[in-house]
Amino acid sequence: MAELLGEEEIEQRIDELGDWEREGDEIQKVFEFEDFSAAIKFVNEVAKLADRYDHHPDMDIRWNRVRLGLSTHSEGGLTSRDFDVAGEIEQSIR
Fold it and tell me: N or C: which terminus of the chain carries fewer CB neighbours within 10 A?
């Protein structure tokens, strides 16, 4: 089981990610694409990555926009797993 992060470490890890934002016990980011097909392709890539980590983001798809939210629900907040997966997602889209 992953351990909840303290406020200072959460802020540091958010800064390292770049443009992810914290909303309560979740980090989130909205990704925008050229069209629906590109958004779905991204979602499918994130799904594969999430399966490898066994840590799955909440996803909201709106035509060419995808909002991802990460939180470790089993721990009731943010853990290093959330930031690790977010970092991998960032690497996968570059």
Answer: C
For the stretch 17-53, pLDDT in tens is 989 999 999 999 999 999 999 999 999 999 999 999 9
Cα(14)–Cα(42) distance, integer angstroms: 22
Residue in the structure block whose two tokens are 């799904």 = 47
**What pLDDT shows up at residue 61?**
98
Pairing of strands 21-23, 65-70: unpaired
- DSSP secondary structure, 10-72, as one string: HHHHHHHHSS-EEETTEEEEEEE-SSHHHHHHHHHHHHHHHHHHT---EEEEETTEEEEEE-B
Tally of domains in the chain: 1
Q: Is residue 16 part of a domain?
A: no
How much is the pTM?
Answer: 0.92
What's the CATH code of the domain at 57?
Answer: 3.30.1360.20
pLDDT at 2: 81
